[in-house]
Design goal:
single chain; alpha/beta; 10-stranded parallel sheet
């Protein structure tokens, strides 16, 4: 009897890791959900298995989004002057960062930003104000400008205005806002460590008001604020269970003058693991690589798009992004394509 000396690939420790991610992807593609323990294991993936993890995650991304990338454009319509104490934010009342401070911009400025968003190939124009929530003047300004932007530039509109009541959410829906951004930012357990002027429950209530008004919910978080892996996983499951359609994942830009200055020590692999975990937990949700990607992913930014399917093009609220041309080149080099507006 002759015994084969060929090695079965499943006995190879490297292959075992690769097969585990693919088996997990098979289950997700078959309609199953991964467990919290499995999500935690993704965040603990060894560096030399990250490419295997991304390969498995790409199969999930491709099923739901193909090779498309959606572009978003951020407009800081009101800067600084915020009464909240969010520790990561350069616009908060406790920040000493030298950021611009101005009330909500005039119509012409908001329309010019919309023109630039359309010119850059963005699908969605994100209108953001720094505030606990909008006052009547700010809400009225949004109600007036949104129909004009949509008619002239055929852009989807995402409003980020702080905490919202159901009545305010209904007004945003009525004027044509497509979705509202209100990030959970971190887990419920960790929330009091990054903000004391409002609660995690306040943010969840706003998302429910947005949902009940008939708009899409955009909500994500920030990685690198001293949270544990358990915190990141809890946030991912909460976002999934709330039915959030769009998840922006930020990586802390520890701005000097904020309480979290100097706190972030993320590696590119940490960012990729987090993005992959969100893709496995919320397979059919839009996943956006958001603030801090240039700082933390650096030359590995293209790898993030193997699991994420959208980007902000241009600058963020108070920090600079890379040149739009670099994003276009990255998307083209990957063999992906930009999704246009569906308005």
């Amino acid at each position: 009897m002759t015994v084969s000396t060929a090695t079965n690939h499943t006995s190879d420790p490297v292959s075992l890791g690769r097969d585990r991610y693919q088996a997990m992807a098979d289950r997700v593609l078959g309609g199953e959900s991964i467990s919290r323990d499995e999500a935690l294991s993704i965040l603990k993936t060894p560096d030399d298995e990250v490419l295997d993890l991304l390969s498995a995650g790409f199969r999930i991304r491709q099923k739901h989004f193909g090779k498309t990338v959606q572009l978003y454009f951020l407009m800081n319509a009101k800067s600084g002057l915020c009464p909240e104490d969010c520790h990561y934010c350069s616009q908060s009342k406790i920040s000493t960062a030298p950021v611009p401070k101005y009330n909500i911009l005039k119509r012409d400025d908001l329309m010019e930003a919309a023109r630039l968003a359309a010119e850059r190939g963005a699908k969605t124009y994100c209108l953001v104000i720094s505030a606990r929530g909008p006052n009547e003047r700010e809400l009225s300004a949004v109600e007036q400008i949104v129909p004009e932007i949509k008619e002239k530039y055929n852009l989807d509109i995402c409003a980020c205005l702080g905490l919202l009541s159901r009545e305010q959410a209904d007004r945003l829906k009525a004027c044509g806002v497509d979705r509202v951004n209100h990030n959970l930012n971190t887990s419920e357990d960790h929330y009091a460590d990054i903000c004391t002027t409002h609660t995690y429950a306040d943010r969840v209530d706003t998302l429910r008001n947005v949902r009940d008004a008939g708009m899409e919910m955009c909500s994500g978080g920030i990685i690198g604020m001293g949270e544990t892996h358990d915190d990141v996983v809890s946030m991912a499951f909460d976002l999934r269970d709330l039915g959030v359609q769009s998840i922006p994942l930020n990586f802390l830009n520890a701005i000097e003058g904020t309480p979290l200055q100097g706190n972030s020590d993320l590696s590119p692999q940490d960012c990729l693991r987090a993005l992959a975990m969100f893709r496995f937990v919320a397979p059919d949700r839009e996943l956006r690589i958001s603030g801090g990607r240039e700082l933390h992913l650096r030359s590995l930014q293209p790898l993030g798009l193997y699991v994420a399917n959208s980007l902000f093009v241009g600058d963020y609220l108070t920090t600079k992004g890379q040149a739009p041309e670099a994003d276009y080149d990255m998307i083209r080099d990957l063999g992906f394509e930009v999704t246009k507006s569906t308005c």
